[in-house]
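Hey, I was hoping to borrow your eyes for a little while. There's a protein on my desk that I can't quite get my head around. The fold is given in discrete form, as structure tokens running alongside the sequence. I'd be grateful if you could look everything over and explain what you see. Here's the protein in full, and shout if anything looks odd to you:
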Amino acid sequence: METTLATFHNIKKTLEEHISLSKTTIKVSVAWFTNKELLGLLTDKVKNGVSVDIIIISDDINNNRLSPKDFLLNGGQLLIFKTNCGKFLHDKFAIFDNKTVIAGSYNWTHSAEYHNSESVIITTSKTAVKQFEIRFQKLKEQVQQFNSSLLINEINKGADIIEQKFSNLEIELENDLLIALEESRKLNAKINFDFVLTFIKSYGAIGATKRLMLTGTDKIQSGFIKMWELNRMDLTFESIIVNTKYSVLFDEQTIKIATERLKKFENPAKVK
């Protein structure tokens, strides 16, 4: 049965779910793509044999924030729609397995996730899917293979300022996480450092931390317990992300999990 619905909240989560469920193809067209976590998920899909094509504009926002090396090395296709061709790519849609389309106002960026009011339509209408397939093919006729020299600073300074704000905040978060890891290493904490570092590389500091939180309060890492024993809870990722300045980067559920973990360890009797 064909379905069509609109959503105005949790759009990134919706995209994550559809990426995860895709088996054969994913086609993405967005002006700006800066979300490292979404790119990491698409890279995972490419590694698992899914064909992934992404079209973005030739703008410095993408150049400064996007790190597509792993995506490209594993066979993903990143295509550049040059803004000096007379038109500006404003299409924002994704096609999953040629069966579902998500289309609307949402760029795959920090701004869209944390700053803007956004909406998308999710449809399995065969007619709509076919129309967007044709549209994607038309766009591909106007693109070039990825080359960083094509990404130039020529549009939308306002968007760049907002993206820079969130990018800087994620960089600060990553630096805090890496400092905490290094200090934990010196204290001989039982942490799989290579695993955590790979997570950060693959999904960015935000995505990696969120995934680590998803183990829940009943699956505390041995490293977390070690930090508690050493009275160095300040080195836990939980303590870092509940910092007020980082609250804008995480959903309520992630913050809730981190807070519950920390509260549980405030009372030694509960840590059994």
Q: What stands out?
A: The two ends are 50 Å apart (CA to CA). The mean pLDDT is 84.
